[in-house]
Amino acid sequence: YGGQDLDEETAKNLIEHKKEIELSFILGERYQDTTGTHPKRATRGAARFITTNVKSVGTLTESEWEDFLRPCFRYGSSEKIVLCSPKLIQVINGFGRGKLITRSDEKSYGITMTEYQNAGRKVMLIEHKLLTNSSLSDLTGIAGWGILLDIRDLKMRYMNGRMTVLKQNIQANDSDSTQHEYLSEVGLELRQERKHGLLQGVTE
């Protein structure tokens, strides 16, 4: 009824593997272990790379939001994206509520902002579902984050032919099982650190 178990599990684990790559591009820490026969390395994510344009704030006002954006746009493109936690998206949506004009015959109310423009700058707002904690009421850490990125400054780097490889039947010869492995040798390259920004600690 549920399909072939091996095919289903292979597909499910590919989704999890891709999610782990995305998380490493966001939160990963640069790491190298040369103690073994083959060196083990891990890529550094965007949040670890950004050190200059970092702003921590609890209650985010539109003025503080502008103060965060201003130094981030000193260098690089005039169009950038912000990966927003669900809480940050909620707060930014609130910026427009006081500017709404409603009529009695309207059947819907509210606002969904996907783009923020100011003085020739354009910021695409993307809600990132992975920037949250297990409990939605826990607004610590990544749950209050916004990561501003100049996409033109990012590159995905991987070994030739090793972006994602499915290694099949790697179980021991005497094992009564089937074992596959997804392997990706890929990293994130960010070039100019001051083109990006990190907003932290937003709770309201």
What labels describe this entry?
alpha+beta; two-stranded antiparallel sheet; six-stranded mixed sheet; 12 strands; 23% helix; 4 helices
Give a short overview.
It is built from four helices and twelve strands, in the order αββαβαβαββββββββ. With 204 residues, the protein is of the alpha+beta class.
Please tell me about this protein's structure.
With 204 residues, the chain is an alpha+beta fold. 23% of the residues lie in helices and 25% in strands. It has 4 helices and 12 strands; from the N terminus they run αββαβαβαββββββββ. The strands form 4 sheets. The protein has a 6-stranded mixed sheet with strand order 3-12-7-4-6-5. A hairpin with a 2-residue loop joins strand 5 (115-118) and strand 6. The chain starts with a helix and ends with a strand. The mean pLDDT is 86.
